[in-house]
Specification:
Layout lengths: L21 H47 L7
């Protein structure tokens, strides 16, 4: 008779999970808040600059048009 060899049993051991501490959570939250604040400042400055530039451009365009027309604009 043929005999079968003994089976090989492999036990998979999972790596230990690194625990998250309150310090890790606080550092992550402060870092995320800092990034969001920086993005808000940059976007606010960009939008403010665009609005000021648009107003200056519109004022110059209206001033040039006002000199060419007979209409009086009361500001």
């Amino acid at each position: 008779m043929l005999t079968q060899p003994n089976p090989i049993i492999v036990q998979v051991v999972q790596e230990p999970v690194e625990s998250t501490t309150i310090g890790d959570v606080l550092i992550g939250a402060i870092g995320l808040t800092g990034v969001l604040v920086l993005v808000a400042i940059l976007l606010g400055g960009l939008l403010g600059g665009l609005l000021i530039g648009f107003k200056v451009l519109r004022t110059r365009t209206n001033a040039a048009a006002a000199l060419d027309s007979d209409t009086i604009h009361i500001v």
